[in-house]
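Tutorial handout. Part one gives the primary structure; part two gives the three-dimensional structure as tokens.
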Amino acid sequence: MTAANSPRARGALAVALLVVVVALVPAFVHSDYVLNLCGVAGIYAIAVMGLGILLGFTGQMSLAQAAFFGIGAYTSGWFTVNLGWPVWPAMGLAVVLSALVGLAVVYPCLRLSGHYLALATIGFGIITQLVLINWKSVTNGSDGMTGIPAPQIGSFAFDTYGRYYYVVLVALLVCAYIAWRIKTTRVGRALEAIRENEIAARATGIDATRYKIIAFVLAGAYAGLAGSLLAHDTKFLSPDSYSFDQSVVFLVMLVVGGSSSIGGAILGAVLLTFLPEVLRPLKTSYIMVYGAAVVVMVIFMPRGLAGLLTVLRARFVRGAPPGSGVAIPVAPGVEPA
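Part two.
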């Protein structure tokens, strides 16, 4: 098999073609409504990818992703509105501050796991939202923050949905590449070992504490960047947007897409951003249909959309015989019968 025909080369070509197609969306879609949805889906995908590093790669449950999302948004908004900072440095500061808060949160939680860790992160998320509501001198409380500027390069401002789409797309591609590099290197293998069996990972010499800290910091950084991007997209911030409910939405996006898949995180975010809009004509019934659709996907696709696509590729692209492409998920360390 030549290098050009190797699976890696074909995969790289497929990704490159997909990126080109996605980059051409504003050329063919002229609806600001649809372009805004595309931008929001990309922003959510960044936050979900960060959660995927923590939950999918490392096996650590967090229900505070919306809190880091809000910290990034308010950091970027406050520094640009109140101090007149340029947008790009403010975005960088939002990423750094969210990562540092993630570092501060993870230390008291290092001895926790499972539902205890989830409860601790829920508490942090609730506290963060209360701070955003009550620290009125900084956040303007429930009235929200307005007048957040659009980013610009020289005199060129990304002040339309079509232009801002490319800001989100570049950020999404960079974040996806970083996540892919993490997953395919020694760090990714260490995170996977911790996810499968932390005790065994420690026995082989892996510093589980260090790698869990790295995962939490990266999850915070990704959410902070996503929050900053959303702030400069909507031009308005409200504490209601960073509640526990939003953390659950991020978690559902990850599970539906595929918790350990980078492409799955993006796919889940895009699907669950557009699905409510598609179901909107159902009026009061749409939330019931939306919830039922999510439940069905979780039950019948336990490895998410990414797992389903892997099965389909194995069956139809590689010509696997009928019945051999369906993978039945089993518990770690248990061989299927």
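Part three, for discussion. The first helix runs from residue 7 to 23. The longest strand covers residues 145-146.
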